[in-house]
Amino acid sequence: MIDKISPDMLLKNIDQLKSSVNQQAEAPETTSGADFKSVLGNLIEDVDNAQKEADVSLKKLATGETNSIQEVVMKMEQADVSFKMMLEIRNKLLQAYKDIMSSSQS
């Protein structure tokens, strides 16, 4: 039997994702000696791992190894949120680069 997805469970998992994102956002400030390249590399690696976990979870659901739709949905949402966060960081970096380049040419 497939378990129902409760709104409370989704809200709890969203709160966990928010705290995870906040911890990742604070990590560069608290980590001494971490350079930008390694921080960005770790972020990309985390997003990749989340997407791989979601893919494995989805395959397990399709093959019948698991019947927990909540787990699959949560892993997929976590991967989606992680990817969107990385995309926003990329967009902000590109905008900052464009701003710097346009101000240096003026």
Question: Can you tag this structure with a few keywords?
Answer:
106 residues; mainly alpha
Detailed description of the structure:
The protein has helices at residues 7-30, 36-63, 69-105. The chain has a domain at 36-105. By secondary structure, it is mostly helical.
Quick take:
The protein is an all-alpha fold. 84% of the residues lie in helices and 0% in strands. The chain has three helices and no strands.
User: Secondary-structure element sequence?
Assistant: HHH
- Beta strands, count: 0
Question: What is the arithmetic mean of pLDDT?
Answer: 82
C-alpha end-to-end distance: 65 Å
Most strands sheet: none
Class computed from helices, strands and strand pairing: mainly alpha
Radius of gyration: 18 Å
